[in-house]
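This protein record is not my work; I was only asked to verify it. Where you disagree with what is written, explain briefly why. This is what I was given:
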Amino acid sequence: MFMPEYSYKNQETDVNIMTDIKIGHQVKLAQFEHYIFTVTAVHQDGSFTVETILDGEQILSYQNVVQEMLRPVKL
């Protein structure tokens, strides 16, 4: 199983949790596993802004996303 260097595996929940997230990283949100988001901002409180493009032109963006809600994209 491939795990990026910026994640670790939580043995209790068997889920990869990202620990070193930077702008430009590709991630999945826990509740939207079928979309790949790009981190566009890191906030002082430790939360993130992520966005993805839907159907060519619509942009879906979420602000103040906590680290625990993000999952690494497996390449």
Observations:
- Confidence is low (pLDDT under 50) at residues 1-15.
- DSSP finds no helices and seven strands in the chain.
- The CA atoms of residues 50 and 62 lie 5 Å apart.
- The first strand starts at residue 7 and ends at 10.
